[in-house]
Design a protein that fits this description.
Number of strands: 10
CATH topology of the largest domain: Porin
Number of helices: 2
CATH architecture of the largest domain: Beta Barrel
Helix content: 10-25%
Structural class: alpha+beta
Radius of gyration: 58 Å
CATH class of the largest domain: Mainly Beta
Order of helices and strands: HHEEEEEEEEEE
Strand order of the largest sheet: 1-2-3-4-5-6-7-10
Number of domains: 2
């Protein structure tokens, strides 16, 4: 009975000492904790909190600025073409050469055939390109005649062609004067058949240089059509001879020579031309 009372007293004493010990330890721990409210960091944070904050800029995706595209470059006219007329023309030609075809009578009339005609209308063609007053191109023409009687026949063919150089001056919006020349060559081919010809048939060709200077007019019928006419002299030297032109026993092909003659020409040409602008 007494031991129980003493035990309780002893336990209460020990519990009180433990409580005092714990209370003293807690007070000591609180005394040792730093006071944050009095620290420099706390004071600085209070000062910064009162300051005005810089504005926050939010950049959204902005559309990219389109750069203007460079203007297309204009095709500049070369300086040497400015103010000049440029174009081209071409078409058929009808020609009127006046040649002495009597030199071929040994091949025709002396064999009982009709003679070759002096005046012919050979058809040809031409084409030129124009830059300013200058026209450069080409021209050609040719024709053929046949004569026959019974078992005898004879034929002659003649052709000319070459480079064309012309100068055109416009005297009116629809009329121009042309001066020019063809420089080239030509040839004459002869043939014959019959019992009086050695071997039954014969043929020979002679080539030569040729020139045809002329003067004419050009009329602009339509923007794409012109009618042109000129007259000049066809120069060449055709002087065949020798054994090559002996057709058969007592029969020769040529008696004399041809040295050209007056020649007219009419052209129907198609094309177009413009006058280049003079840019300042």
């Amino acid at each position: 009975m007494d031991i129980g009372i003493r035990g309780k007293v002893f336990l209460r004493l020990i519990g009180g000492l433990a409580a005092l010990t714990l209370a003293a330890g807690g007070s000591r721990a609180r005394a040792e904790e730093p006071k944050y409210e009095k620290s420099d960091e706390f004071q600085k944070s209070k000062e910064d909190f009162g300051k005005e904050k810089p504005p926050v800029s939010v950049q959204l995706d902005q559309p990219k600025e389109k750069r203007p595209e460079p203007a297309p470059r204009k095709k500049e006219t070369p300086a040497w073409l400015k103010g000049k007329t440029v174009g081209g023309w071409g078409g058929p030609t009808l020609n009127y050469p006046n040649l002495n075809m009597g030199i071929f009578n040994p091949l025709t009339e002396k064999r009982g055939l009709d003679g070759f005609k002096d005046v012919m209308c050979p058809v040809g063609g031409m084409g030129v390109g124009r830059i300013g007053p200058l026209r450069v191109g080409g021209m050609g023409l040719g024709w053929e005649q046949h004569k026959s009687h019974g078992d005898k026949n004879a034929a002659v063919s003649l052709g000319f062609g070459g480079l064309v150089l012309e100068v055109e001056g416009d005297v009116h919006p629809k009329v121009g004067i042309i001066g020019g020349a063809m420089l080239g060559g030509g040839s004459i081919h002869l043939s014959a058949e019959g019992p009086d010809v050695a071997g039954g048939s014969w043929d020979e060709t002679e080539s030569f240089l040729a020139a045809y200077p002329y003067l004419g007019l050009s009329v602009k019928v339509l923007p794409f059509l012109r009618l042109e006419a000129n007259y000049g002299w066809l120069f060449f030297d055709y002087s065949p001879g020798g054994r090559d032109y002996v057709v058969g026993p007592g029969v020769k092909a040529v008696d004399g020579s041809l040295n050209g003659g007056g020649t007219g020409q009419v052209r129907l040409v198609f094309g177009y031309e413009i006058k280049m602008k003079e840019e300042k």
